[in-house]
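Collaboration report, partner site 2.

Our partner group contributed sequences for two proteins of shared interest, and the home lab folded both. The records are reproduced in the order in which they were received, starting with the first partner submission.
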Amino acid sequence: MAKGDVKKVVLAYSGGLDTSIILKWLQTTYGCEVVTFTADLGQGEELEPARQKALLLGIKPENIFIEDLREEFVRDYVFPMFRANAQYEGLYLLGTSIARPLIAKKQIEIAEKTGADAVAHGATGKGNDQVRFELTYYALKPDVKVIAPWREWDLTSRTKLIEFAEQHQIPIAKDRRGEAPFSTDANLLHTSSEGKVLEDPAQEVPDYVYSRTVDPEQAPDRPTYITIDFERGDPVAVDGQKLSPAALLARLNELGRANGIGRLDLVENRFVGMKSRGMYETPGGTILLAAHRGIEQITLDRGAAHLKDELMPRYAELIYNGFWFAPEREMLQAAIDKSQEFVTGRVRLKLYKGNVAVVGRESPYSLYDQDLVTFEEGAVAYDQRDAAGFIRLNALRLRTLGQRRRKLGL
């Protein structure tokens, strides 16, 4: 787009080196007014320095937005996703993927509030995040202008970035002079690490990369037992204590961290077409997934449970690829939420050296009938002789096929 076309832009701003460079680049390249937006998603960092950095770079106080989105993030994004037991490619709990639509949505809201005609992000042209941000932008504000600096500028190396920062008096932390050993992204659900020391999938992840969990081998030698209470598919209490969504996930993170739970070394297929090796730490989410599946075991009908498992890979892929606000994701969400009407009860879990196991589950809506499954004698509503007809009916087509094979001598 022509540089003069942009009057005001809302930048997703972390306060780090890259987005600070982007902020100055927007000012010098587009000559536009910049509004910064910093989201607190529970990444565990002090966000006030982002405000001070923005002020230092000439941003007006009224154009600096810092919002605590932790409760909204967990309540409206993480929990709905966990109702589906969503795992991309059967393993990844989508910690980065699920955060992007919320950040992008808030950017659009701020753009509407401030009269901005453009939005910008710091995602590179090789990754998935550029897709996730921009699909959300266009879904919520179809006529918005999008600026993706990594697809436009010539700052193609760390050295050039540092030179640009020094030229424009952008503060550079001493440990960022030179290439970082790996890059990270964090929020209340997870921490992801990728790049540099992790780029060779044949090499084990170095110990220093892990930040969210203790080494399972160094975890306590005694197991930790906990309970999680669910109401309509969402967790509401840990060990009987009612907690808000964000506080509950934070509590599970503490328990997972102490017991070395939630590490994942994964080579995944990016939406843009390449394979990528990343290391994910999702301590609380790993516990929550096991617990949710545990309560579903006794509250979901077989047909509903199996259909959910069939839908899950498609649902997870939509989130991974950035289609949170697409109609097909919303349709699937409606079906998933319907399945959770009676997913209420308590699950007991055993946490031990990197592992989480369901060891008990109970619900006022349980479909488990001990009288039906017991091997002991008793008043039961099941006549074992009925199984003979059931089997013969299900075997009918197999017997017909067998007869044909016999006639043909196959």
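Second partner submission, folded after the first:
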Amino acid sequence: MSWFSGVVDRLSGIIRLGTRTSVEGSAGYGNAAAESVNDYSVMNLTAAWACLNLIGGAISTLPLMVYRSTPGGRVLATDHWLYRILHDDPNADQTAVDFWEYMSVALELRGNAYAEKLRGVSGQVIGLDPIPPAIVARSRLSNGEIEYRWTWNGVSRREASENVLHIRGFGGDPLGGMSTLQFGAEAFGLSQALNRTAGTVFRNAVRPSGVYQTATKMTPEQRGEIEEHLAKRHQGAENSGRPLVLGFDLKWQQLTMSPDDMQMLESRKFSLEELCRLFIVPPFMIGHTEKSTSWGTGLEQQTLGFVKFSLRRRLKRIEQALRKQLLTPADIAAGITIEFNLEGLLRGDSKARSAFYNAALQNGWMTINEVRALENLPPVEGGDVPRMQMQNQPITAQPGLGHNGGPPLKEAA
């Protein structure tokens, strides 16, 4: 493809009457701190890295299931063609954890996650290959369809929406979600500037623990003698606490942290909390527990809040995108659904898992074999029958009691 045809291809979505074009910026976003904000610079911020690591890890390690409705409820549709792709192997190179972690990070940073639908000879989707979101341009064509264009490894592509899985982030625009990099550029830029300033200070500034002062003038030889004496007898951990004897009428003056330094530390802490707000992550979940207790029910409730109000909306967004763009009308009519299994969050909490199973078994909404299957245990004979506690029955069913639990009714003579 010639240079001119490449330019025409890039402009085609803009000059066509009645179209809209959207593309992510790749060079970085400007801000008042004059810092370049892009994927690489943001991932160098420890708070952003921790938030993305937490969100991506939580989503990618949850089991993504395909279910089929039955007259008695629903069952796992392990025989469906989508189950292997979504649950195990989305493509030849990535595991399901790798793929969904990549897609989650793309959603968090760019507001969009893309994957090409790989099709077999019969035209059926046999895999999903992720596309870097920064290189994808989206256009609303005059016929109403959305077209995706990108160039990768020197190859230019134009694909209709039927061949691209597009998971949109916050914002709800059909052409794509809002980019956290763009709308959070000021917060990211400030954090980068604070880190850069702190590094420059520690690299260039003189930071002794204190000074020795004297009212008399000292010769270079005398200063050298004192410095050599201090280095030999008092430097290092093994000489810690050793008595110090000096002449020359020297007085020790301790140096403390200046107000400017304290203000910089407070600014960096505030910057960390700002990044947590951007990603809707409780600060304690990335190791910042300064303003909250580090143990107990307070953190348990914050963790539940993260699952309910932050993680759940992300999972729902992915589930609905997969349903809309991967399931056929025949699949939907047959009751095929796609859903993350949130019970996967309990795998590391044996106490909570035990309480959950106990309630399920005692109230009869799970069987013994269903619980054993979740624990990767083989079924047992008679374990497919739901059970309930004997005391959970109507009070009128108790022998010797009358209507509404009153005394027994006397038979008429």
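Feedback sent to the partner group on the second submission included the following. Residues 209-234+244-254 form one domain. The two ends are 106 Å apart (CA to CA).
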